[in-house]
Amino acid sequence: MVDVSIATLRADRAAVASQWQLIWWAFKRHRLAMAALFVTLAMYVVATVPGFFAINDPIAQNARATFHPPQAVHFFDTSDGFDFGPYYHPMRLTRDPNTLAAIFIADTSKKVPIELFGRGFSYSVLGLFETDIHLIASTDKTRPLFLFGADRLGRDVYSRVVQGAQVSLSIGLVGVFLSLLLGIVLGGISGYYGGRIDFVMQRVIDFVLSLPTIPIWLALAAALPQGWPATLQYMMITIILSFTGWAQLARVVRGRFLSLRTEEFVAAARLDGVSEGRIIFRHMLPSFSSHIIASMTLAVPAMILAETSLSFLGLGLQPPTISWGVLLREAQNIRSIATAPWLFLPGLAVVIAVMALNLFGDGLRDAADPYNK
What we know:
The chain has 373 residues and is an alpha+beta fold. It has helices at 2-16, 19-28, 31-48, 50-53, 157-193, 195-210, 213-222, 230-243, 246-260, 264-271, 276-284, 289-312, 324-328, 334-339, 345-368; strands spanning 74-77, 83-88, 91-95, 102-106, 112-125, 129-138. It is built from 15 helices and 6 strands.
C-alpha cells in the first residue's frame, strides 16, 4: 500500500512538472553524468578566476628553477613531536660533477608552510578590481612551490595550466555559441520555408560537410598574420573553429523544423496572425531546446580539442597567450620529454575536461530524450 502511494505521488508530481523539471529528474539518476557536471562546474570556476587558484605568477621566469621537478605537499610532521599543517621541503640546486647537469635535491631539514587564502602576486578579477589573495600561497616567496614543476624558463607549470584553462575552456563556449547561432538561423530558415530555399541551404550544408576539417583549419589558421595581438588571434581562431561546426547542427534543426511546421500548435499560431519570427523563436525552437543544449554540450569538447591541436602544431594561438595547446608545445622535442616529463600535465587537463564534458553531454542528451524515460 505504501509503495502504491509513493508511486501515485511520483506520477502526480510528474504530471504537473515542466519539461525542464522532468529533464533534471532524469539527469539526476545518471550518477556518472552528475559527477561530470560537478567536475565541469569546478573547471569553469577555476577558468573564471584563474589568478585566485594559481600559486605563482604564470609569466614570471626564474633562471634558477629551469626544469624544476614537482614538489610534494606534506600535511603531518612527526620529526619533532606532532605538527599538522600543509608544508613542503624547498629544493636546492646542485650540479652533476661529470655532466654538469642540474640536479634538484629536497632539503628535508627545512620546511616552508603553506597558508590558505594567503597573499601572492596581484591579478585582476574579471577586469573589475585587483587583488593578491590566493587559495593557497607559500609563506616564503624566495623559495616558491612548484606543484607541477617548472618549464625551460623556470615558469610554474601548475599556474600556467590554471591560467590556460581560461582560454581553452572559453574558446569552446564561444565557438559553440557561434556555431549554434549559424546552425539555428540557417537550419531554421531551411526547414521552415522548404522548397528552393531548403534545396539551396542543403547544398551549402553538403558542401561544408564535405570539406576536410583538419586541412581547412590548418590552412585558415596559417593564413593569420603572426604579428596580430593575442585578443585578435583568439577571436579569429574561434571563428575558424566555428566555420565548419555549424553544418551538422543546422541539419538537425532543419529536420526538426520540417516535422514541427505541420503541427497543430504551429497552424493555430498562423491562423491567429502570429508573425513568422515569433512562430519560430517563441513556439518552435523552445519545443526542442533541450536537444539543442545537449548538442552544444557535446560540441564543446570538439572545440577544445581543435584549439589544442592547432596551438600544439604552432598554427593556433601563439605565446605569450597561455592555453593548454600552447603549453603542450613545450613537450614537442625528445630533450624536453626526457628532462621534464611533467610538461605533459597540460595534456592531462585536456583529457579530464574532454571526458567530463562528454559524460555530461551524454547524460543531458539521455535525459532530454522523451523515449528514454
